[in-house]
């Protein structure tokens, strides 16, 4: 059915189509019509950083920034859902237009800028939802918060989402908030992660259970930068790493009419770069920290290749725009075909 709807959605402004699709999913879920859009996904359980996932294919952050559509998204068969990025205070994000499709490259460029309704609104939405699966909450800083005070924003978000999340993600890698990626430098990252780790342990004691904390990194890292990040993370005791966010590299789309738009590039052109960072971090982290592979997954073979490169789990976003919900089951089935024995035989970071 999505093949019939996609030309209509692609005729609309990209951000308008995004909002319309989510509202349509909510309506279809309430009317019990999602079976016409998404096929059932068979379980392929895996345990990663102490959490049990019904299958290793999740939704990446960014699609549902405020946690408003959890019940409908869960019905598409994801093994886990990540919402956000959320900031302490509401903010409108960057001026429109700020979302662009590049169909000839199966790609998207966005410069959304952490547009969200604030952490309190997200928590209310999660509380109203009936979703009880694995939920990741991705946290960031407000645009107006200087980097030397950024940790305060992350701490504020961590404290408010902790009781409602299965795991929490530190987003210090979006290219759409000026200066944010500077937090990936060795000294800044060490300070940020160290302070959040202290808060994580304190909150775990207060809430009667420790929640995993992950870091989402950029794909545009030099080998030396990757070395520094790996060193910080191995020393910090962080629970996982998401590889990767969107890229500012434009070589693959430089001749596209929209290729020069500023923002983060995702979709098919990101796959090789993001998978290279994934493999590089697997080598540097020596298998001691579980990895989630995201970036450019357009079919089941792409998902399986992420596991080959070191991922314990994968996440989808741009591929859903081009392929629709059928992509979830396709990825689960291909991972089952290529990796079921390996997933059964090992647990990641348990």
Helix content: 25-40%
Largest sheet: 8 strands, parallel, barrel
| The CATH top-level class label | Alpha Beta
Structural domains: how many: 1
Structural category: alpha/beta
Low-confidence stretches: none
CATH level-3 fold name: TIM Barrel
User: What percentage of the residues does DSSP assign to strands (E)?
Assistant: 15-25%
Number of DSSP E strands: 13
Number of helices: 11
Task: Please sum up the structure shown.
With about 350 residues, the protein is an alpha/beta fold.
Describe this protein's structure.
- The protein is an alpha/beta fold and 350 residues long.
- The protein has one domain: Aldolase class I (TIM Barrel).
- Helix content is 40%, strand content 16%.
- It contains 11 helices and 13 strands.
- It has helices at residues 2-10, 14-30, 70-74, 119-128, 150-161, 186-207, 223-236, 271-285, 300-308, 318-323, 326-345, and strands at 46-48, 51-53, 57-59, 80-86, 99-102, 107-110, 135-139, 167-171, 213-217, 240-243, 264-267, 291-294, 313-316.
- The strands form 3 sheets. An 8-stranded parallel β-barrel has the order 3-4-7-8-9-10-12-13, surrounded by 4 helices. A 3-stranded antiparallel beta sheet has the order 5-6-11, with no helix packed on it.
- The model has no long low-confidence stretch (mean pLDDT 96).
């Amino acid at each position: 059915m999505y093949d019939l709807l996609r030309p209509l959605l692609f005729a609309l402004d990209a951000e308008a189509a995004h909002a319309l699709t989510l509202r349509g999913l909510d309506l279809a879920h309430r009317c019990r019509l999602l079976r016409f859009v998404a096929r059932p996904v068979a379980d392929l359980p895996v345990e990663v950083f102490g959490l049990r996932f019904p299958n290793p294919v999740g939704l990446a952050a960014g699609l549902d920034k405020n946690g408003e559509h959890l019940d409908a998204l869960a019905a598409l068969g994801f093994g886990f859902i990540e919402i956000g990025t959320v900031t302490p205070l509401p903010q409108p994000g960057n001026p429109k237009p700020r979302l662009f499709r590049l169909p000839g490259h199966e790609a998207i460029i966005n410069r959304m800028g952490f547009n969200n309704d604030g952490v309190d609104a997200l928590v209310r939405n999660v509380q109203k939802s009936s979703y009880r699966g694995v939920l990741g909450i991705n946290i960031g800083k407000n645009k107006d918060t200087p980097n030397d005070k950024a940790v305060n924003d992350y701490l504020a978000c961590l404290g408010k989402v902790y009781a409602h999340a299965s795991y929490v993600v530190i987003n210090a890698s979006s290219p759409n908030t000026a200066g944010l990626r500077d937090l990936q430098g060795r000294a800044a990252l060490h300070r940020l992660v160290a302070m959040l780790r202290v808060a994580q342990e304190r909150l775990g004691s207060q809430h009667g259970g420790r929640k995993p904390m992950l870091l989402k990194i950029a794909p545009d890292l030099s080998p030396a930068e990757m070395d520094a990040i790996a060193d910080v993370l191995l020393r910090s005791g962080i629970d996982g790493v998401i590889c990767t966010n969107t890229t500012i590299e434009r070589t693959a789309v430089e001749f596209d009419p929209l290729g020069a738009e500023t923002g983060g590039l995702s979709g098919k052109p990101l796959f090789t770069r993001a998978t290279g960072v994934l493999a590089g971090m697997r080598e540097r982290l020596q298998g001691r920290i579980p990895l989630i592979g995201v970036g450019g997954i357009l079919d089941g073979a792409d998902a399986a290749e992420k596991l080959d490169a070191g991922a314990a789990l994968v996440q989808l976003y741009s591929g859903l725009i081009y392929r629709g919900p059928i992509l979830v089951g396709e990825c689960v089935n291909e991972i089952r075909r290529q990796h079921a024995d390996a997933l059964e035989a090992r647990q990641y970071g348990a």
